[in-house]
Amino acid sequence: MSNSIINLTNPSIPLGSTILVTGVNGLIGSHIADQVLAAGYQVRGTVRNQSKSAWVEALFTTKYGDGRFKLFEVPDLALKGVWNSPIKGVSGVVSVAGLANLMVQDVEGAVKDDLDGFFNLLDAAKAETTVKAFVFTSSSWAVWTPKANTPMSVTESTYNEEAIGVANDTKLEPAQKGIAPFMATKVKVEQGCWGWVAREKPSFTFNSVLLSTVLGPILSSKDQSASTAGMVKWLLTKEHLDVMEHIAPQWFIDARDAGRLYVAILTNENVDRERVLGCGGRFSFPKVLEILKEAYPERKGEFADLPDAGWDQTELPSDKSLALLNKVGQSEWTTLEQSAKDNFESFAI
Length: 349
Description:
349 residues, alpha/beta, Rossmann fold, 7-stranded parallel beta sheet, Epimerase_deHydtase
């Protein structure tokens, strides 16, 4: 369903309004901006370095025409007054930019650094009376730690207390903790933002999206590192296979589905103070590899080999998320097969 047309009925934010998207040069941010523009809105996108990310404005201007997208530089999310210009007059805010270092050593320090920036943005949004909706990007890792072949159940109210416990365990060496400190940081940062909402009681809707691993096509493969979606290319180039072997089977979401999910939340005033699971289906990199070898048999010998890693057995409620997609004209999630093939082909290798 990756090519479905966005269809909005009585959106709570009128078409033509302006939406602010932070971290717009990344995989997630660029797809959110793309879908917001496709829905009929104007977009302001922020990046840390405007000159290095000039391609973003060129990309969206070519696709949607002059004046629909404008790029702003925000070198430090916590800098006083840095949001004054980007946020002036906008109707919605999508917060994507945040901690990207998986190997966190100091959880509390990382949490403080992230929250300083997010609180600064939230304060600016509260002060700007035009803002009707704010969507915060969290992670499914703030909900649970994926484990292959391990039945478990989670809900939108679940927090990853296991990761916090591992991160706080003084008996474990950093190598033994793995990325648990990063997951713990995601938990505490999201909880910190919910704490701000409880204290400040903003008039705008506030929701968090708990994104799982994001796959799908790269909008500009020559300009974007593409994060997790970039790993699909490694299956052909045979880079960092040791890293991929340690990524447990888990849930994923296609980048285009993710973008539409944000549009649905932004434009529905009845969705407020909720955590929304951004999980479209199960995946593993060995399964992605299997899909690509079957889809491109003439290149089968070029691909790497990965050992079978089992399969995710986590049960979670995705009906709310799918119902939101339905409201913008999409009837079902993009399949792993489609997402993996589109992901691979976007690299043109």
